[in-house]
Design goal:
The chain is an all-beta fold and about 260 residues long. It has two domains: about 5-125, Immunoglobulin-like (Sandwich), CATH 2.60.40.10; about 130-260, Sandwich (Immunoglobulin-like). The chain is about 0% helix and about 55% strand. Strands 11, 12, 13, 14, 15, 16, 17, 18, 19, 20 and 21 form an eleven-stranded mixed beta sheet that branches. A hairpin with a 5-residue loop joins strand 3 (about 30-35) and strand 4 (about 45-50). It starts with 6 loop residues before the first strand and ends with a strand. This is Transferase. It comes from Streptomyces poonensis.
């Protein structure tokens, strides 16, 4: 009878760090926790040290370089083959309503989660600067967006724009009201063609950086099926359409425009 697959409990901290407690996989020699970037060749290895009977432990610091993407988690003993880890208990309480304080305005987010196949993976984001989406209000004439910016400041020239994903052209622009780092705006739907509109913040106006608006600062790794919003029916030159705000697989804020049935 084969040994059960090893598991890892994870504890997340608000600065993007993760602590892993792994059931000892057995076998001689030193053990490592291995993070592999899905779809790429990059790998991060963390030495595991004893942490009580049958347990090994390691920590990924918040300032560790872990580029954006999905990282599959393995355990490897000596020269043996890496083995996928199963998720144990994920303690993500400190990610709720977090206020990042990373150096240089960089926001690092790492959220462990169970894949559809039941394995442990980590979703990583690195944003500098970052525009965090808060409350959304779906109105008949536009989408109200409240948020907060990190790593830069808002000027009187700041605005939010909706950009056509295929043509990369700005199709709507909205001025915003600001209170320190917090902002609010209402982006008019206009008469969009079917497609996807991505929402961006221009914190200092057209001459400055363009910052993708996203919702990252909580404990939900994939928001697309969790945060669901109603659609708005619109009459356009392209015929009747429905505009629905949603979060992408990267938790960026967008609006899907589809032909009405």
């Amino acid at each position: 009878m084969s040994a059960p697959a090893p598991r890892a409990d994870c504890v997340a901290d608000p600065e993007g760090g993760l602590t892993f407690a792994v059931t000892a996989p057995g076998g001689p020699g030193p053990a490592h926790l291995v993070l592999r970037l899905r779809g790429g060749e990059q790998e991060t290895r963390l030495p595991l040290t004893p942490a009580g009977t049958g347990r090994l432990r390691c920590a990924l610091p918040g300032d560790a370089e872990l580029p954006e993407g999905r990282w599959d988690v393995y355990v490897q003993t000596a020269d043996g083959a890496p083995r996928r880890l199963l998720p144990g208990l994920n303690d993500l309480r400190r990610l709720v309503d977090r206020v990042p304080g990373g150096a240089g305005g960089r926001v690092a987010v790492r959220i462990p989660y169970a894949t559809k196949y039941g394995n442990l993976s980590v979703r990583s984001w690195l944003r500098a600067p970052h525009a965090e989406a808060g409350d959304l209000h779906v109105g008949g004439d536009g989408l109200g967006v409240s948020g907060r910016v990190y790593g830069t400041s808002l000027t009187e020239d700041a605005y939010v724009e909706a950009v056509d994903r295929e043509g990369a052209a700005s199709v709507a622009r909205a001025g915003l009201s600001a209170d320190g780092d917090a902002f609010h705006c209402t982006v008019a739907y206009g008469a969009p063609a079917p497609g996807v509109l991505d929402l961006w913040l221009r914190p200092v106006g057209e001459a400055g950086p363009r910052v993708r608006i996203a919702r990252l600062l909580d404990d939900v790794a994939d928001k697309k099926l969790v945060f669901v919003y109603p659609g708005v029916a619109l009459k356009t030159d392209h015929g009747p359409v429905v505009a629905v705000p949603y979060y992408t697989t990267d938790n960026d804020l967008s609006v899907a425009v589809t032909k009405a049935d």
